Amino acid sequence: xxxPSRILVIEDDLNVVQQLVSGxxxxxxxxxxxxxxxxxxxxxxxxxxxxxxxxxxxxxxTGFEVLEAVRTRVSVPVVVLSARTELPARxxxxxxxxxxxxxxxxxxxxxxxxxxxxxxxxxxTPRRALALADVTLDLDARTARRGDVALDLTExxxxxxxxxxxxxxxAQSRTQIADGALSESGECGDRTVDSHISRIRKKLxxxxxxxxxxxWGIGYRCDEEDEA
Length: 228
Hints:
By secondary structure, the chain is of the alpha/beta class. The protein is 43% helix and 21% strand. The strands form three sheets. It has a five-stranded parallel sheet, with helices on both faces. The protein has a four-stranded antiparallel sheet with strand order 6-7-8-9, covered by helices on one side. Helix 2 (37-46) packs parallel to helix 3 and helix 6 (155-166) packs across helix 8 (190-204).
């Protein structure tokens, strides 16, 4: 299970604090609190938060001053939550680096939806990868590695390996392999597929090569496990 997102609330109104902290924690967020601008800024600079909720009217440092200080030092997204709903306050918030502005009073359900939408934008997208014995195929970078060693697969060799691995345990005819992995090459005959498989086995190394089995009279199959 992944760790909950960490949110810092910088707010000095006790009623709003109670609403925010209880609502965010019920929604599953790891929530911290600061009730003054300077305290909030210190927590941002010394902590590791996924998002900050910031009031504008704060003691010691205003929300605008916090935004200005954060902008050049930390990349955490800051959502302004304020009763100052006039246009200049909104524009100044965005000019100083806020990613969103939520006016008070607010609906907790809407605020949580906005937070989740913002976190989804900043969360890293997992890389797509396939494992074939001791070889890893990175589908996004289109690279193949055996441990720390990069394998010199051509574009179409990579296509063939990925095609078979994605269909592990199922025999694929030479026509299926050609249509699914080699159609753009213009060379889709049975002998072309066999030539690619021969070169692929040599490049993958013994463990991964054993996973690509010949199915006589049909084509090839990527076994789900190494042979004993």
